[in-house]
Amino acid sequence: MSLPALLTSLLLLADPTTPAVLGASRPGWIEVLPQAPRRLFALGTADLPLGVPEGRALAQASDRARLELIARLKVSVRGETSSTTRTTQAGSGGRSYGYGDRTSRDTVQVLVKADDIPGLAIESTFVDTQARTAYALATLDLDRATEALQVRLGGLEAERRALEPQRTRQARWRLRGLVSELQTLRELSSTLSMEGLQTRTLAEELKASEQLSRLESAQLPPIAPGHCTLGIRSNIQLSPGLEGLLRERVTAAGLKCRDQAPDFRLELRFGGGSQGPALIFAEPRFTGTLVYRLEAELSIVAADGLVLAKAVSISLKQEGSPEGMMEAFLHHLDRRWPMLRDQLMAELGD
After folding, report:
1. pLDDT, tens digit (0-9, with 9 covering 90-100), for 137-165
2. Is 109 helix (H, G, I), strand (E, B) or coil?
């Protein structure tokens, strides 16, 4: 065995999930999508600029492949189990090539998310280092999806029945979550043309909605804020000063701060540019200048993720320098915290 081949074999043995091997030939699924009974396929691509890690480009290609498969579901399921179209696309290396469903869409109007669909997976990935392009092949096993969704519905039915005798605010919140999950499942079963599952899900959704309506109008025992714990979670690392300020606001509301398994969580979701979420991020303008932005959403959620309180989003923009943006953010935060607190207190019946 030649030395390059030996090194390639060792790399594969060391990491069986390695998405691409340098020097490997382009896989056939890039040119023509696979065909298989009761399975759907879609292809996603992403450019690989110099200096960008392959993993980031592969993640973007994978997201696009999942999105493309979801966007095609209604047409594909009602017609053939898979289809291909001939397209050409110029890669960043200037070469035009390709058979298959090539897409660079990052957004599409769909009501179903990839995480909602069992059996949807990335089957294969490949990086063409010469064309500076990453590829991902998404697949959906319809039989596996059907079986898993039936199990999911059975679990929701059992949970609703268990909540029937309960007359608590926690039961009210969980029923709100169940209704939302059943609506998602009904939409998903419609997308996948599972008429029997759709009918069962609609019937269960109506039962859960009626049960919730009774609890929404009932006089339920209040929950004392002093008996509740609230944690803080963010999609970025908060500075000690900012986290300390938030904890002060929580305790001033009569709640106890606790990070491990709290009753509620204060969620902070920050936006970001090409480098991901950040407290303050810069956007280049065509004039060569920079615009600094701060985007944040604040909410309070129950232990199961149900949103109980939500404030108006914070959106700040400043040209030239980020100086002073943190002070402006804290000002807006102090204005929005009372909204969140009052909504939570209303849910507690305080």
Report:
1. 999 998 898 899 999 999 999 999 999 99
2. coil
Question: What does the alpha-carbon distance between residue 35 and residue 27 come to, in Å, rounded to a whole number?
Answer: 15
Contact 246, 232 (CB under 8 A): yes
Strands 96-99 and 86-90: antiparallel
Q: How many other C-beta atoms are found inside a 10 Å radius of the C-beta of residue 89?
A: 13
Cα 71 to Cα 63: distance, rounded to the nearest angstrom = 12
Q: What is the pLDDT of residues 279-330, one digit of tens each?
A: 998 888 777 788 999 999 999 999 889 999 999 999 999 888 888 899 999 9
Report the pLDDT value the prediction gives residue 287, as an integer from 0 to 100: 77
**CA 309 – CA 342 distance, rounded (Å):** 8
Contact residues for 154 (Cβ-Cβ < 8 A; gap 6+)? none
Grouping H, G, I as helix, E, B as strand and the rest as coil, residue 125 is strand
One-letter amino acid at 165 equals P
Say if residues 200 and 152 touch (Cβ distance below 8 Å): no
Q: What does the block give as tokens for 197?
A: 């599952």
